[in-house]
Amino acid sequence: MSIENDLINISKDKAFEKEGFKSLFGLTIEVEKEIILSIEKGKKKRLISLFQLLHPADQADMLERLSKNNLNLCLNLLGKKLELETLVFLDDEVKNEVIKIIGTSALIRALPELKTDDAVEILEELNESDRSIVIKKLPKTERMLVEEAFSFPEHSAGRLMQRDFLSFPEYWTVGQTIDHMRTTFYEEEKNFYSVFITDPAQRLLGELSLAKLLSNNRSTRLKDIMQFEFKSVNVNTDQEEVSLLFQQYGLVNIPVVDDEKRVLGVIIVDDIVDVITEEAEEDIFGLGGVRHGSIRSSIFETMKGRFSWLIINLITAIIASSVISLFQNEIEKIVALAVLMPIVASMGGNAGTQTVTVAVRAIATKQLNYVNLQKFVLRETWVGMLNGILFAFLSSLLAFTWFNDIQIALIMGVAMITNLLIAGILGTLIPLTLEKYKIDPAISSSVFLTTVTDVIGFFTFLGLAAWVIL
Amino acid sequence: MSIENDLINISKDKAFEKEGFKSLFGLTIEVEKEIILSIEKGKKKRLISLFQLLHPADQADMLERLSKNNLNLCLNLLGKKLELETLVFLDDEVKNEVIKIIGTSALIRALPELKTDDAVEILEELNESDRSIVIKKLPKTERMLVEEAFSFPEHSAGRLMQRDFLSFPEYWTVGQTIDHMRTTFYEEEKNFYSVFITDPAQRLLGELSLAKLLSNNRSTRLKDIMQFEFKSVNVNTDQEEVSLLFQQYGLVNIPVVDDEKRVLGVIIVDDIVDVITEEAEEDIFGLGGVRHGSIRSSIFETMKGRFSWLIINLITAIIASSVISLFQNEIEKIVALAVLMPIVASMGGNAGTQTVTVAVRAIATKQLNYVNLQKFVLRETWVGMLNGILFAFLSSLLAFTWFNDIQIALIMGVAMITNLLIAGILGTLIPLTLEKYKIDPAISSSVFLTTVTDVIGFFTFLGLAAWVIL
Description:
The structure is a homodimer. Chain A is mainly alpha-helical.
């Protein structure tokens, strides 16, 4: 293999230019295989040099893809060569495992090197007692900032924000500001995109992008070029709201302020991109009946996560079946009913799921509110009815050609309209009601819905048959 | 109402500070109601002043929430006062309607004021002939850039990129660079976050953040502080790949290069945030069987979109039912079979959907590849089998207590294991196979899957009953 020999001694920036390591995503299948090989053969030096070739985000991906056993081996081989920044990119589950393996003393050594928001993200994974041990050992300034972050609610802007930001008085000039940045940040790599203009009490007056700062003359005063219209968030705002602000206004950063409008920190878009992905994934997994969608979880963990959802579905299936059992006599006499009844139930379930999906997403993105609520419910009702009519016709035709019985055909049609209409109405009302009572509509809507469409589907179809035919 | 009288004459920045208009999202329900009122009463001046209070993104939201009729009225009342930037924030459906109403001449007037990527986004909505009419009328530079953008594939980095970027030779100093920016960008509002360092042929050598540029001395040469390790994308890269790069490495911008590594433009994170949301939504709607999830579509459009999915489901339901019809004699003799069979089918469908959801998401986020594929399929197989055993036990118990028949109970158990095991295996293989043949797994997986779990569920349960009992 050509990669085998020439990897160790090539410098970090050159390696990626070599054929075979040139990938859009850094961590190619070849590198992945090589790393696994070095772990299993215990080649410490080689493993370290391979890891150093990767961006911390790719190192994190690599750790996430290892089995529990290999993860342990890998971390032991890497030892202190593991870049702590990697932890920030890990998903919660693996982060937890890694922290357990490397221990709190490694954390104490490494945390002061990280930005406060990254340190907080890692500390959030520890249990209370371990966390307070680590926090106590931090240098004083770092400790105070971390402790303050933990005083804000979980998933709030306060937890997410970075404490380093640049703020200047409004009477400063562009030249003064640049000179100050030069003396303060020389040689340091920081990700700043705006400076904030504040009054003596640190209250926010305006915002100024670095690009604008750079394109104005040195003598210009900040107050003459700063932006008055800009968005800020309170430190207690939920991260979901913050992420909607970034999406709505295409922001790159947003200042975080306290109740007196004093700047406490800044949230940068790269942290929000994670939140957006997480929130969308929560909806996807919720609607699919999966609690944690990690493909890395062990068989047992996965099984446990799926089990609770399946048990709820078993109960709803039993409810639907007990509706069928009410009509055992009818089915015994006309077996065609048993053949056709799943069609009615399944069409209702699918139509309802369509409506639920749209409603859940519209709620999550705040598109649905009290002004357009009525219109939305009305539209779904109409769609349910019109598709109900179409599918009533189609399924009647089907039932008639199959069993050559006009009565069964008509009953099928009526049951189909009823079920699709109810699916449309409840597909909107169920998520809205759950949302009102602070239950996540993405997770719970579809259980309620399919229970109802199954029950209604079986009951109208079999009930009508019992009433009309027998 | 207190807002009624004092709105028109307050300036844009002051208005939001007034109680009642202070919302995290700008467009409050009060403002929305006020706007609808002014449209319906034809109050032109008031409507214009209300619109001017809103951020273009909020103006777009407002337009999206109007009925077709009100949208028409509103655009007529606004006339040339409609900020064209608003178009950029509209979703495709409404953008299309708005363009139809305001006409191509309004576009020709407004497009040169927009950034190229925004202009391209709007032009993409026009049909070929209208588009070429508009493009021909554009000023020369603008026209060339737009025409070039359309030469790149749809959804590629080339369509998404902004053509304004800053590139400098490596031997320039910080001072030279800043001075150049001052003379060139004075008074202009641009969103730049990095400058690119290029050779005389415009080939990319390095990247330098504005923050780093600002914190170095004027005499420092760019080549001494520029970043060598940075990401760039080829102009033909698909936007989904680009968005994964931003997510993976927490980027704020990325240079777009041609095959010779010459810089052509830059993609900024705010455009990618939209892509991330869109891609996640495609998965959500795909899995939910909805083609377009807009809550604004008309009843007829919505019905049409849902119909095609429901007709596919009708066909799969018929297939499942024809399996049942093979066993009509058995059901006639033991009606309990009709009562219990939906439980087996439904549990298989739900377990399979869980697996499909995880697989679809893992494929979309590139977590699943050829290295961990086998492990993933194996895990899902195990999970399917283990949950199969648990639910076989539970459902046997249920069947026995319900119908007091040990044979039916055992058959139920065997059918349940079989179906959950197959659901686990196919829940992984179906999306992977679809992906291989370039069919979107999010949209098509669940139809295939539930068809199979229904057929297997009914067939094993009823077939075993026919074989064992009768």
